[in-house]
Write a structure and sequence with these properties.
By secondary structure, the protein is an alpha+beta fold. The strands form three sheets. Strands 6, 7, 8 and 9 form a four-stranded antiparallel beta sheet that branches. It has a three-stranded antiparallel beta sheet with strand order 3-2-5.
């Protein structure tokens, strides 16, 4: 286009200045001959016209040999028409890019009319007024975003019992209200990160270290999620916290050995406590069994007191005398002295028991 304009401008300059270096016409007597005019004698030469000659011929007005005359565009078009066509194309592209909006299935379009909230666009291809009259901000409402804490290095947190632990955790969240998400908070991601850090430190400030590095992680995660949601709701952030996960909660590296020793001692104490409980349960079970047996004996004793008393006497004496080698005979008519120990030695020669005296109880009827 630039080259064409230069070539179109050149004949105008030549026509305006007839006293130029080429002269005003085709007469050689007036001065140097105009290279654009037909030479004397008709044609320029016997050679065929070039493409440049054809182009210049079309841009000239009239068939004379002079260099005057205003140039015109081919096919009767004007520069103004070309400019109008270019502007029209730009407007069409502008309308196409700013008026048609493709909203994905997981997205919602927040519409603003001169910067003021106007409505919400559902998934699909939607048409609005062009920008800057109407602007559409697409927000993904189904994506679960995950933030890692800390971003670099370890994060040191003070617990409720004045101990220090190294902590690493993740927070999962998504957009629940696109309008509030776009208008109520300036930087949603930084707001969520600041809220998560504040909630975690507030919860650990009331938690003991043993719970933080032990079995209390689940409770801490639930409490941090609840506190974060309360803070974000107060901001009207349009964010829903999906969950908090503690990946690491350990004592500082300089105190790892000491904490391991404390942990081992605690585990040993728990083992000893379990053993003591098991032994106590065994003793209680034995005592309960003996008590149950005594209750059964007492029930029989109440039915027949004399028989039960005699039976208990015999069983008791049997248990006591079974550990001695004395023999007591209470049958009438037996010789007062009976060397039963010698008879026992004769029956059991291999046993090296000590000889003991045998006491014979007097007969119930007395000696005659």
């Amino acid at each position: 286009m630039t080259i064409l304009r230069r070539w179109l401008r050149r004949p105008i300059i030549l026509a305006a200045d007839n006293n130029g270096p080429w002269g005003g016409g085709g007469d050689d007597s007036a001065g140097p001959r105009n290279p654009w005019s037909v030479p004397p004698g008709g044609r320029r030469g016997s050679s065929k016209p070039t493409a440049l000659d054809e182009f210049l011929k079309k841009t000239r007005v009239g068939g004379g040999g002079g260099g005057g005359g205003r140039p015109q565009l081919p096919l009767g078009a004007s520069a103004r028409t070309l400019w109008l066509i270019g502007v029209g194309l730009l407007v069409a592209i502008w309308l196409l890019l700013t008026s048609f909006h493709q909203i994905g299935p997981q997205q919602r379009g927040v519409v603003t009319y001169f910067g003021k909230y106007s409505g919400m666009l559902e998934p699909g291809i939607r048409v609005t007024l062009p920008a800057p009259i109407v602007n559409v901000t697409k927000v993904d409402v189904e994506q679960v975003r995950t933030d890692e804490f800390p971003q670099d290095g370890g994060e040191t947190v003070l617990t409720g019992d004045q101990n220090i632990i190294d902590l690493a955790y993740t927070v999962r969240w998504r957009v629940s209200d696109p309008r509030n998400y776009v208008f109520e908070i300036k930087d949603p991601q930084e707001t969520v990160r600041a809220t998560a850090e504040s909630a975690m430190r507030a919860v650990l400030a009331t938690t003991r270290m043993n719970d933080a590095i032990g079995a209390g992680r689940g409770l801490i995660e639930a409490r941090v999620t609840q506190v974060m949601q309360q803070i974000l709701d107060s901001y009207q952030a349009g964010v829903r916290v999906q969950g908090v996960s503690i990946k690491q909660a350990s004592p500082p590296a300089a105190l790892v050995d000491d904490f391991n020793a404390v942990t081992a001692a605690q585990q040993e104490a728990v083992g000893n406590l379990n053993n003591a409980r098991s032994y106590s349960q065994q003793v209680i079970a034995r005592a309960q069994g003996e008590a149950s047996a005594f209750d059964q004996v007492y029930a029989q004793y109440r039915l027949a007191p004399e028989v039960t008393r005699r039976r208990m006497y015999y069983e008791t004496m049997e248990a006591v005398l079974a550990k001695t080698d004395k023999t007591i005979v209470e049958t009438p008519g037996v010789t007062p002295y009976l060397p039963l120990d010698r008879a026992r030695k004769l029956v059991e020669p291999t046993q090296g028991t000590t000889t003991t005296t045998t006491t014979t109880a007097p007969a119930q009827g007395g000696q005659r």
